[in-house]
């Protein structure tokens, strides 16, 4: 069973539990909430990394994602589900921009630390394929 299978099953369940119509705008808003927040939280990556450090950033965003995942299990309304999924996107967005740069740094020589980070940020910013 893949993550997509679980996601589809969860969508069917919460649509029934919260009386959502799969063709409604609310249903689409709930499904897109993590991705909406990812687009905004990626812009905060530099500032969060500067404030918490890379290890601290990964730890805090993992906590945020974990709490948001558990929060999704106990919601009683579509607004609360939207908020929990939006918070999940905050954690995922910052992690997705921080962790690849750490692996890129670990694979490079000492004198070439900044080049892979700049290249990754440039490709993410401009939506280009990696160089």
Short description:
The protein has 131 residues and is mainly α. It has helices spanning 3-17, 25-41, 45-73, 78-106, 114-126. The protein has one domain (3-126).
Descriptive report:
By secondary structure, the chain is mainly α. The protein has one domain (3-126). It contains five helices and no strands. The chain has helices at residues 3-17, 25-41, 45-73, 78-106, 114-126. The protein starts with a helix and ends in a 5-residue tail after the last helix.
SSE topology:
Blueprint: H1 3-17, H2 25-41, H3 45-73, H4 78-106, H5 114-126
Helix pairs in contact: 2-4, 3-4, 4-5
Which range does the strand content fall in? under 5%
Q: Give the total of beta strands.
A: 0
So what's the overall shape? elongated
Spans of 5+ residues with little confidence (pLDDT < 50)?
A: none
Number of self-contained structural domains: 1
């Amino acid at each position: 069973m893949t993550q997509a299978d679980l996601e589809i099953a969860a969508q069917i369940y919460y649509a029934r539990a919260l009386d959502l119509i799969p063709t409604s705008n609310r249903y689409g808003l709930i499904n897109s909430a993590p991705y909406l927040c990812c687009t905004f939280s990626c812009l905060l990556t530099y500032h969060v990394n500067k404030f918490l450090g890379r290890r601290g950033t990964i730890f805090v965003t993992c906590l945020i994602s974990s709490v948001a995942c558990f929060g999704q299990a106990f919601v009683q309304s579509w607004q609360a589900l939207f908020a929990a999924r939006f918070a999940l996107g905050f954690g995922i967005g910052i992690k997705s921009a921080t962790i690849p740069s750490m692996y890129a740094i670990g694979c490079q020589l000492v004198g070439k630390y900044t080049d892979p980070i700049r290249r990754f940020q440039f490709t993410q910013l401009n939506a280009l394929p990696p160089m």
